[in-house]
Amino acid sequence: MTSTLHGVGETIAYLPYSFGFVPAESVVLVGLHSKRVQVTARLDIPDPEDVEDAARQLVEPLWQRPMDDSMLIGYSSDDCSPQPLTDRLLVLLPQAGVPVSHVLEVRDGRWRATACSCGGCSRSWQPIPEASELAPVAEQVMRGVAPASRRADLVRQLQVHRPVVAGAIASTIASGRRCNDPVELAAAFARVLLDDRQPVARLPITVLADVTAAVATIDVRDHLLSWLMPDFMPPSEWLAQWPQLREVLGPPPRSGDLARVDDDEATRRADRAACIRGRLIEWLQCAPAGRSVPILLLLVGLEWAGGGGALANVAVERALEIEPDNRLAGLMSHALARGLRPTVREEPRSA
User: The pTM is what?
Assistant: First the structure.
């Protein structure tokens, strides 16, 4: 289903659900084509000497992208003004073929237009509409999106919170334990990813060690990715090789096929995706940091396939911090930075 955002106020209210966190001290570009949202990109407000580099970083991926309108939204504070970056973007964006119809400022739950080509936007402060009243927000909530108050909160979610459990997992793997039985291993992945009756950190250490060691192998990781993002990696080519995993995991939680299933099935898959997201985060919080990259990439795949760009970006950045030369993380980072999507997803329209 495609919903409509009516005006710039509703667009601002929707953005935290698009990014996964509430923007602050930053500039956001919303790019439109035929009144459909094509790009949402955010940059922290840089130091004055870095404005030029920051502006070019935002604009560079937009060359030759089909956009016929855009909005620039600056999130200001007492200590931080978006104007130097906004002014530079107003020069560079038209050069990249991106016209800018609105320049907006957001502060303390209010917004105003500082430039407006439609002539209907208020230059005085207006309250941001209640997000709960917007249909596109309801769709995101159904996908399990709940924006964090700050991007830093997303980063902290993906760090080790259970060092004792992480140490026990590392010791068990170091002892040479390996589970090679496909039935037992498939059941272990189902317990970690789908069975939310027990927190991940309270599962038996042997179960956590088995899945943490197994997902480090490329075949196992890619089997799971083919389930999490089937429009990018068709599951028939992977899960058929591991029928036990296909049987215990069930249908993919993310898929362009959702447009062709009934509402009850779409809701079940959205609930499953939200459950898996939470379980992957719990797994990361109790896994040894040095073994977390494959888990991070599973989270990237799930979020990227569902349009959760903020969490996907944070997860891939974390993966590259740990393994700078990881080729799949680099590929995902490249695709995310350029706004590429692994699946068809309907974005809200702007009225």
Answer: 0.66
- Class of residue 304 by CB neighbours under 10 A (exposed 0-12, middle 13-18, buried 19+): buried
What is the per-residue burial (b if ≥16 Cβ within 10 Å, else e) of 179-191?
beeeeebbbbbbb
Phi, psi dihedrals of residue 238, rounded to the nearest 5°: -115, -55
The residues near 156 (Cβ < 8 Å, ≥ 6 apart) are: none
Mean pLDDT of 39-64: 83
* For the chain, percent of residues with pLDDT exceeding 90: 42
Cβ–Cβ under 8 Å, residues 223 and 182: no
Structure tokens at 226: 């083919």
Write out the two tokens for 322: 């740990």
The pairing of strands 69-75 and 126-127 is unpaired
DSSP 50-87: GHHHHHHHHHGGGTT---SEEEEEEE-BTTB-SHHHHH
Distance CA 101, CA 95 (A): 15
Are the C-beta atoms of residues 245 and 223 closer than 8 Å to each other? yes
Strands 102-107 and 69-75: parallel
From residue 249, how far is each of 217, 227, 270, 280 by CA, in Å?
19, 8, 14, 14
* Average pLDDT of the chain to the nearest whole number: 84
**Residue 98 token pair:** 């991106």
CA distance readout (Å), 227 to 7, 51, 53, 289, 351: 37, 41, 39, 24, 36
Task: Please give the distance of CA 2 from its chain centroid, rounded to a whole number.
Answer: 19
Q: Which stretch of DSSP H or E encloses residue 110?
A: strand 110-116
Walk me through the domains of the chain, giving residue ranges and CATH numbers.
Answer: 4-141 (3.40.140), 154-341 (no CATH)
Is residue 223 within 8 A of residue 239, CB to CB? The reply is: yes
Residue 29: name the closest of 100, 118, 109, 122 by CA: 100
Backbone phi, psi, residue 60, to 5°: -55, -45
Whether 169 contacts 204, CB under 8 Å: no
